[in-house]
């Protein structure tokens, strides 16, 4: 069997008691390897702390709080004894965040929860938790860490003193549109998550929100917010009746910025529920189509090319029939991580369905897109899959490339890339084909 460190690029370091390791190690590892991460088990504080201190990359650190009871404190060379939570937290490196597993009884103690969340807690979960659920949640954290996403706010009115640096740090783009009568055009082009409208612009044109919301392409998750200079109940009632979602009084720029950040995070969560593939964390078909349309609008505005690629795992039915659907899921998840690792900041990636993926490269010619897809194909081909003890296999995918502006709609690009994918399959597989009109 190949070394696990060579097979899996992500790691979880788990501090727990010996009996937990004995009872759960094999099953946990099987589940974790399916999600392309390995688990290193520790039952002593010193070994765990040293591993955390020397960690590089995106390791996750998980602590079973039962270690507080009847655990050997080898750092002090004493026999097994009860350790206080404060002792545990003091010994953990404070430049990392931790995931805690706790019993229901521990979870009922608010002061314990407070101490955890105030001490570098990334997340906590209550036991009993099945191994399958635990590894699924850990995979979601890995997936969330590796994907960045840009959101947009359009502000209509006088340029406000929002904290643009804080917005940019959280991947939020702020666009200014001073003219109320052109706001509907800007919203159609930018597809923002939030629209801010100053009260002066609203009073000048009270039909603003109705014009925005009656567009058949209006996104129902988009929030339209009125910025009032001072509280005015009569105006507030009229504004809410006309379709505004919220009214804020921007007395402090920093507070307003943080209010908007909280709203963006809720919008992101809501969109994830309908636009993300649960198994991989990637965009699903619905999410990709919406994002691709937005990217086409932006590419047209900024005069940038797009390369649109379709990827299909070669002989995937054979993989499922020979080693089972469970193993097929492993191949899909591993491919999703290989593709994600080579994306640019503004590129899009989707699990379009089954074993098929779509990638959209921003500011990229079809020839450059082929080079990038070939690099991904070669990286995937080097991955070793253990199909059964002592037997390893490598797999491949084929791809097709289309581009914008040669093909000027998402559907046209998909059909052309799909035709190129078919050509790659017919030509012997494990290759990427690109063509033009």
Automatic annotation (TrEMBL):
Its EC number is 2.7.7.65. CDD domains: GGDEF (cd01949). It is an enzyme of class 2 (transferase). One of its GO terms (molecular function) is diguanylate cyclase activity. It catalyses: 2 GTP = 3',3'-c-di-GMP + 2 diphosphate. It comes from the Bacteria. Residues 304-437 form the GGDEF domain. InterPro entries: Diguanylate_Cyclase (IPR050469), GGDEF_dom (IPR000160), Nucleotide_cyclase (IPR029787), Rev_trsase/Diguanyl_cyclase (IPR043128). PANTHER family: DIGUANYLATE CYCLASE DGCM-RELATED, REGULATORY COMPONENTS OF SENSORY TRANSDUCTION SYSTEM. This is diguanylate cyclase. It comes from Undibacterium pigrum.
